[in-house]
Design brief:
By secondary structure, the chain is of the alpha+beta class. It has 8 helices and 4 strands. Helix 1 packs across helix 8, helix 2 crosses helix 3 and helix 4 packs antiparallel against helix 5. It is globular, with a radius of gyration of 18 Å. It starts with a strand and ends in a 20-residue tail after the last helix.
Length: about 230
């Protein structure tokens, strides 16, 4: 079974969705026969590398709310993350452009370390308060995963791969992330509960075998929306 995931490391729901899928796979008897591929999706392609405003100020400005309301919203996300075993710390989050982070993920894919690097980037962004828009941060993350980034960020390496993922997302009609596609047949949109992933895994697996299974659907809650 193949699972394709469109995601942005600046999306907290993508981190939660990753955890929920992993929890479902832990219970899935055929988990060793599942291949997961991460695809690039920039929520805000025009984002700056550095901002004067913090995360709360940018959220307040974007959604026309107060700073306190922005903090309340992130507190709800923190609670959802805690239930999934994630320690979110939005006080530390440094908003930035994620294009180079996506190029690093594409490099990791070439070496079979995509999932590991996704985890490192999510943790760096949402737990450790690292600036993942800066090349030196990405190089350190790559090194911790055993990857050599020599010449990558000084060139347009892996830009085509990022753009190809984004083009495919447009063709499929993906409007928000996380977005999970199972065997190119079933879609799960958003950080759905673990049981939704469990049911989808079972349904897709049974359908790939000589058995009749009712058609699946698309779920649509807990989605990060792009600019």
């Amino acid at each position: 079974m193949k699972i394709d995931i469109w995601s942005d490391v600046a999306c907290p729901f993508c981190f939660i969705g990753k955890r929920h899928l992993e929890a479902a796979l832990e219970k899935f008897p055929q988990r060793d026969e599942v291949e997961v591929t991460w695809h690039s999706f920039e929520l805000d392609p025009g984002a700056q590398t550095d901002y004067k405003e913090n995360q709360y100020e940018l959220l307040a400005k974007k959604y026309g709310m107060s700073i306190e309301q922005a903090k309340e919203n992130t507190e709800r996300v923190e609670a959802s993350g805690a239930a999934a075993g994630i320690t979110f710390d939005f006080d530390k989050v440094i908003p930035t452009n994620t294009f180079n982070a996506h190029r690093l993920i594409q490099l990791a894919a070439k070496h079979g370390k995509q999932n590991e690097v996704e985890e490192l980037l999510f943790s760096a962004m949402f737990t450790e308060g690292k600036h993942i828009g800066r090349v030196e941060t990405l190089e350190a993350i790559a090194a911790s995963a055993g990857l050599d980034t020599a010449g990558v960020f000084e060139s347009d390496a892996y830009t085509a791969e990022v753009r190809a993922d984004q083009k495919e997302a447009q063709a499929i009609g993906i409007r928000g992330v996380p977005f999970f596609v199972f065997d190119r047949k079933y879609a799960v949109s958003g950080a759905q509960p673990v049981n939704v992933f469990e049911q989808t895994l079972q349904k897709v697996w049974e359908e790939s075998r000589p058995a009749d299974v009712a058609p699946g659907g698309v779920c649509e809650d807990g989605v990060c929306k792009p600019e």
